[in-house]
User: What shape does this take?
Amino acid sequence: METKICYLIDDDDDDRELFETALYHVTQEMCFMTATSGVEALQQFCGHEDFTPDYIFIDLHMPVIDGKECLAEIKKINRFKDIPVVMYSTSMAQQDIDDTRKLGATAYISKPYSMAQLEKMLQTFFSEYNPKSQAHG
Amino acid sequence: MDEEITRRLTQILLQLDKALATANAKNEIYHRVTHVFEKNPDDLHFFLMYELDAHAATRVAISDADLFGAIAPEKLSLHDEHTAWPLQAAAHCNDYLIFDTENLFIKKISLESWQQLPAKMLLFPLKQLSTLQASAVVIFGTTLSGSLLETQIGFMRLIAAKIACCLQNVESLTETRQLASERHAAAEAQLEHLRYISSHDLQEPLRKIRTFTNLLLRSAHANGLPAEHLKKIDHAAAHMSGLLQNIVSYASISRSGNFTEWVDLTSVVEDATAAFETEIRKKLAVITYSTLTKIKGDRKQLTDLFKNLLENSLRFCEIPPVISISHRLTSMKEGYMHNYVEVIYTDNSIGFEQRHAGRAFMMFQKLHNKKMLGNGMGLAFCKKIVENHQGFIDVESKINQGTMFRIMLPVENDPEEE
Assistant: This one.
């Protein structure tokens, strides 16, 4: 089975660390990669045509390019059209949820208060969205 | 005949006094003045003249305040030279509106048409209003022959001054309101920013404290280490996070102040009661209310108001709660600036000492011990909602004898009914 790539774009060191810890608890068969800004991620995506993560998580509140802009830019890249992109944010403002859904986000996950919550959310998400196995099946 | 005119002028002055007492907009003043003048008959005609725009208002001020004094009483007889006054005043304005109360029409006239106005007229500029936008010119005309008495002219001045004064008050009131609303908008923007900070930036560190504490808890658990202190950290952070959320909700009670929707308070109370159905049944609570009135307001906020009151009553009752909601309409005679609906809300809750009443409406204030859970926000929400509706709320309470809330909400009033 091919190792899947989970890609997190978040400017917050702690959040990247927590996410990684949670992901490790959920599955050890996924490769975790991060970018600290939308710019960094987009450079990587556009510079390496053969690189396509299986899941992308984007923090909503980031300097320079915020989560929404980053999402919009990613969705402009052809090979990313069907890649699930998840918004990952403290804000649960309905406006943000609606906006990002319109821009093509697959899901909206709030940054949780406990590891258990985050792990559960990730677990649920991965079992619902399994693009490559669907493609193969 | 002279006596008759004097009598009418006195009458007009008295009527104006009454009619203008509660006027608080320029149009309202014009409307009411016209209304008073309309009632006056036949041989004494009044024309109200208003400048058309703010620009004209400053220009009409050329005929300065001394104009009153400049008109010698003997010149106030009905001779042609008096048309010179309106002409002078008009010379600096392009257009005027003439309200002919005799024939009940408003007509716009230009400088040229001044000459065509009936000669038997006296012109009173209301005031020198060089900076204010409010200005009007009252023209008195009479079909009588002969001179007006000095007392009569005195009354005309008083009438003119009365209207001028009222207009000026309204104008400065409008200015004050404008200033206040600008300041208000700035404050709202700041509040919005604070709200955002509270809901996002301040929550962020708390979330991390909790998540990392959570990680520590997990490893403590795995290694069989005591975790009491870690749990306390988590509780404190969770509490802080809840407090912040309360501040956000408090700040989110949007301040409209200009409500257009008619809300039936009876259905508001019904909705609020329905929200606590289970609790009411469990505690054997009895809630009685009469048919309440309709007011202009925000349905959701008003429902929240009663929900918070009910929640408090249900929480702070040790015996089956008995809650009653009644109302009455106040009248201006009671010395209020507006007509209000006074809602009296009483319960038989455990109450508190009256000296703490002021604290009751403050955020996070709890007047009861901790075992009676509450977030200390309920009455703060109530106060904010009532104030949003330009009303006020107060409370009377006695330990073990229940609590009474008095909520005053303004109701639309019809000046014609006064």
Remarks:
- The first strand of chain B starts at residue 44 and ends at 51.
- Residues 150-201 of chain B form the longest helix (52 residues).
- The interface with chain A takes residues 199-200, 203-204, 207-208, 210-212, 214-215, 218, 238, 241 of chain B (CB under 8 Å).
- Chain B has a mean pLDDT of 71.
